[in-house]
Amino acid sequence: MVHRLVVSYGQPEDPAAFDAHYRDTHVPLTVQMPGLVRFTTGSPQALDPRQPAPYLVAHLDFDSEQAMGAAFASEAGRAGAADLRNFASGGVTMAHYEVNEVHVSR
Question: For an engineered disulfide with 38, which of 20, 52, 61, 102 has Cβ 3.0 to 4.6 Å away?
């Protein structure tokens, strides 16, 4: 079972500064979180141009909701959470859930 945290970042005031800080500071903090088993990011594009897409989306996978909670209670987790105010000028939203895999047969 995988428990996933989805972090969506809004359009930053300075995209170049956001990108540099995210890459050089926030990612190194995030990968130190205990129990993190997978960390992916992407820059989504809206299918409907009338609906804005987030600037960046990150997926952080853990073995369980309890493992995710322990990761955020850790020193690395607290440091990562505190770092958000240093670069996420466009706002940030977070949601988490148990991943249910759907098998596709063809």
Answer: 61
Gyration radius of the chain over CA positions: 15
Pairing of strands 3-9, 56-62: antiparallel
- pLDDT tens per residue, range 40-60: 999 999 999 899 999 999 999
Name the phi and psi angles at 97, rounded to 5: -165, 160
Write the single-letter amino acid at 17: A
CB-based contact 2:61 (threshold 8 Å): yes
Report if pTM > 0.85.
yes
Q: How far, in Å, CA of 65 to CA of 78, rounded?
A: 17
